[in-house]
């Protein structure tokens, strides 16, 4: 008999993927240049040249048996050391190799982190708006995801609602900063208040509450600002990272978990994650890709285009009368729709070949997400189309 849980998931396909597939099919009809596809968060700049050159050199010079062999279950020591030193330089931490576990992207990092610090039946809290795939990630670990309602004034944490939901059953809190879909970066004040509250509740309930910090957009920041590093604020933090955005390597599936050296059981969590890999069939990311990213760990792709695109869209949306919080990073913007039903709004936009993602699955009804990781020329061409849509459908 087949697994009914996964069979049932066939009816719950990601709206983002559905819209991306629609955009592709529509592009075959009218030319993809004429479809303004803001659906999928797929990096649109080339990968860093330093990475490409390193991969070529590895294949040309390294012993093939070593390059293509199995890596240790805890992943390659030299790579873990390089990640630790990079984080220490940037954020003033004290990581060592023993605190780093390489994974298949941020999704793999979250899968390991969730299984390491929760048990089946535990509650994990996250904050709206949130990445919809958190639901299967948490369910896959046997835990239950509860969503704290959004603070729509600025998309920082809604602390009143959070305090009400942070009961003794919560074993982990999952944050995403810079945030998909809002583009908001949690402030130092937000992270300090979050840390203070978690420390208070740990003492009150007599058990650890881990903070799992999803950070794949850490390098995509605007207006010259930095993203505060959550592990600096709270000891029981596991940082989950992906090179998909910083180096434009989404298909290579490479990331890591960084275990705060001050957290409970910091000395054994990475070893536990190696055992989790045995049970999930993860068995380490590619050896060659681990080695390549370690050598270029201080590099990024040219990410400036995302700020250019954000400014174009933000200014246009404001001019058209949309309510929108200015993103501090990522390549997403999250305006309020011009009617209460965001799905209806996005369906109307499709008539103009504007592919926008309604917000229901992000936990905040009445908004929509635009992933502006597309060519700037296409962003510019989409703005008159957006204006025509708004004026025709809503009398703007």
What is the CATH fold-level name of the largest domain? Aspartate Aminotransferase, domain 2
Main sheet strand line-up: 2-8-7-6-5-3-4
CATH class term of the largest domain: Alpha Beta
How widely separated are the two ends?
55 Å
Sheet with the most strands, sense and barrel status: 7 strands, mixed
Overall spatial form: globular
Q: How does CATH name the architecture of the largest domain?
A: 3-Layer(aba) Sandwich
Q: Count the domains.
A: 2
- The Rg value, from CA coordinates, equals 21 Å
Structural class: alpha/beta
Q: Say which CATH homologous superfamily of the largest domain is assigned.
A: Type I PLP-dependent aspartate aminotransferase-like (Major domain)
Helical fraction: 40-55%
What does the oligomeric state look like here? single chain
DSSP summary, beta strand count? 12
Strand content: 5-15%
Low-confidence stretches: none
SSE order, as H and E? HHEHHHEHEHEHEHEEEHHHEHEEEH
């Amino acid at each position: 008999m087949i697994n009914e849980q996964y069979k049932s998931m066939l009816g719950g396909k990601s709206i983002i993927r559905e819209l991306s597939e629609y955009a592709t099919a529509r592009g075959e009809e009218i030319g993809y240049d004429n479809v303004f596809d803001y659906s999928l968060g797929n990096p649109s700049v080339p990968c860093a040249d330093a990475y490409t050159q390193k991969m070529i050199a590895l294949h040309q010079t390294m012993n093939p048996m070593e390059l293509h062999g199995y890596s240790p279950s805890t992943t390659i020591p030299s790579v873990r050391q390089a990640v630790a030193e990079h984080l220490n330089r940037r954020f003033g931490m004290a990581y060592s190799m023993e605190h780093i576990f390489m994974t298949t992207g941020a999704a793999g990092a979250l899968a390991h982190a969730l299984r390491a610090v929760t048990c089946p039946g535990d509650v994990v809290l996250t904050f709206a708006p949130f990445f919809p795939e958190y639901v299967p990630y948490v369910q896959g670990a046997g835990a239950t995801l509860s969503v704290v309602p959004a603070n729509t004034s600025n998309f920082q944490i809604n602390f009143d609602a959070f305090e009400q939901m942070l009961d003794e059953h919560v074993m982990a809190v999952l944050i995403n900063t810079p945030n998909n879909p809002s583009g908001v970066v949690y402030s130092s004040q937000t992270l300090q208040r979050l840390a203070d509250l978690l420390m208070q509740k740990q003492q009150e309930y007599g058990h650890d509450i881990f903070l799992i910090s999803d950070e794949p957009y850490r390098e995509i920041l605007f207006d010259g600002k930095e993203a505060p590093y959550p592990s600096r604020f709270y000891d029981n933090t596991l940082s989950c990272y992906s090179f998909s955005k910083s180096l434009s390597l989404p298909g290579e599936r490479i990331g890591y978990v960084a275990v705060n050296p001050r957290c409970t059981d910091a000395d054994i969590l990475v070893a536990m994650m190696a055992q989790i890999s045995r049970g999930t069939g993860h068995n380490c990311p590619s050896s060659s890709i681990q080695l390549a990213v370690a050598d270029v760990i201080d590099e990024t792709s040219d990410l400036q285009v995302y700020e250019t695109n954000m400014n174009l869209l933000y200014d246009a949306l404001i001019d058209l009368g949309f309510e929108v919080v200015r993103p501090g990073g990522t390549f997403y913007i999250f305006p309020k729709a011009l009617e209460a039903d965001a799905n209806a709004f996005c369906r109307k936009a499709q008539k103009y070949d504007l592919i926008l993602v309604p917000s229901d699955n992000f936990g905040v009804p009445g908004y929509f997400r635009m992933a502006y990781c597309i060519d700037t020329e296409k962003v510019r061409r989409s703005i008159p189309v957006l204006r025509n849509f708004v004026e025709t459908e809503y009398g703007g």
